[in-house]
Amino acid sequence: MKKIIAIVLAVSSLFFLTATKTLAEWSAGVSASVGHFKASGQESEDGEINKTVSTNTLEGKFGYPSLFVEYNTGLVSVGLDVIPGSVETTEIGRTDYNIEPGQVCTGNDGCNTSVTNKAKVEISQHISLYALVPIMETGVFIKAAVIRADVATKESLATGSVYPNTDMKGGSLSLGYQYDFDAAFVRAEAGVSEYDTVSVTSTGGHKVTADVDGKWGRISIGKSF
Questions:
Q1: Angstrom distance (rounded) from CA 43 to CA 167
Q2: String of b and e for 117-147 (b: at least 16 CB within 10 Å)?
Q3: For the chain, what are the domain ranges?
Q4: Helix or strand or coil: residue 74?
Q5: CA-CA distances (angstroms) from residue 7 to 26, 59, 130, 171, 211?
């Protein structure tokens, strides 16, 4: 992700060095994206770490709109992309049993009783600052972005513990093609996103860390003015 940030900063610097009134041009538009994202992580409970892949990997396919505005200097465009509203993951649950390895349950000692914990995550205020570089006059472009978003946890835990909300940061790289009409333009692009590790600790002392990455495709319609 550090490489992506470096690319964005390097390309964005051209904006300040080359912008002129004759070349400058504003654009705005809307995008529709479909992405496949995967979150994998681990839970630390009382010093024990649960890394089981089958229970700690969540994959999902999401469709979402976004709005963008950008400033074209002639050599590079610097823009801001915002996903309005929020995206919510599928709720996942896990059942834990009150039994130790090798323990034999007898009578009404409470052994082998179970509790179910459920959780899901809502992502909002997803904002991307990007630099778009056209490849000569072919219509093809490369885009690099830095991302930040709010993460709200929504859980129902048998212990009564609550996880705090947090935020996450990341970056993306994409390759696309732009076709210009007389009054507007259309873009198609495909890219990958990677986010920094997110870590939260519940009021009960349980710590969860997760890594998120994904692939996506996008169609955008915009107008320059």
A1: 18
A2: bebbbebeebebebbbebeeeeeebbbbbbb
A3: 2-88+116-224
A4: coil
A5: 22, 28, 10, 10, 22
Which CATH number is correct for 2-88+116-224, 3.30.420, 1.10.287, 2.40.160, 2.60.120? Answer: 2.40.160
Residue type, 117: N
Contact 27, 50 (CB under 8 A): no
Structure tokens at 96: 């834990």
CA 188 – CA 184 distance, rounded (Å): 14
Residue 85 has which token pair?
Answer: 């509203």
Backbone angles phi, psi at 4, to 5 degrees: -65, -45
Q: How far apart are CA 182 and CA 224, in angstroms?
A: 10
Per residue of the chain (225 residues), give pLDDT as tens. 555 545 545 554 544 444 344 345 899 999 999 999 888 777 766 555 554 444 567 778 888 999 999 999 888 999 999 999 887 776 666 565 555 555 555 555 445 566 566 667 788 999 999 999 999 889 999 999 999 999 887 766 656 677 888 899 999 999 999 999 988 999 999 999 999 988 888 777 777 788 889 999 999 999 998
